[in-house]
Specification:
Blueprint: E1 20-26, E2 29-35, H1 37-53, H2 74-83, H3 96-104
Antiparallel strand pairs: 1-2
Helix pairs in contact: 1-3
């Protein structure tokens, strides 16, 4: 007998279909929220000035990135950046500033 498990994300704000899980931390507590593309874009735009001005925390406190958290793939960010005429390396870590721009653009 075969089984198929499906996971459907529901936007935690309005109950519509969610497209990603966003992870963030504030005041020492980490949070996850399932959001539609529109709501995720709104959150990223609202946080962008703070992210760009903040210091990055290294070590175990930092949330891991990956498909479970809704983080964009480096390949997607690189392809978008190149299409936008932005300078990006073909290898290595994608800068956080570029990921913020990618998300702000609604990608």
């Amino acid at each position: 007998m075969a089984q198929r498990t499906e996971v459907h994300l529901v936007d935690d704000l309005d109950g519509s279909e969610a497209s990603e899980t966003v992870t963030f931390a504030i005041d020492g507590a980490a949070y996850e929220i399932d959001l539609s593309s529109a709501h995720a874009s709104e959150l990223h735009k609202a946080l962008q000035p703070y992210v760009l001005a903040a210091r990055k925390v290294s070590g175990t406190r930092r949330a891991s990135k990956g498909s479970r958290t809704g983080a964009p793939s480096p390949a997607d960010v690189r392809a978008w950046a190149k299409a936008e005429g932005l300078k990006v390396s073909d290898r290595g870590r994608v800068p956080d500033e570029l990921i913020v721009k990618f998300r702000t653009a609604g990608q």
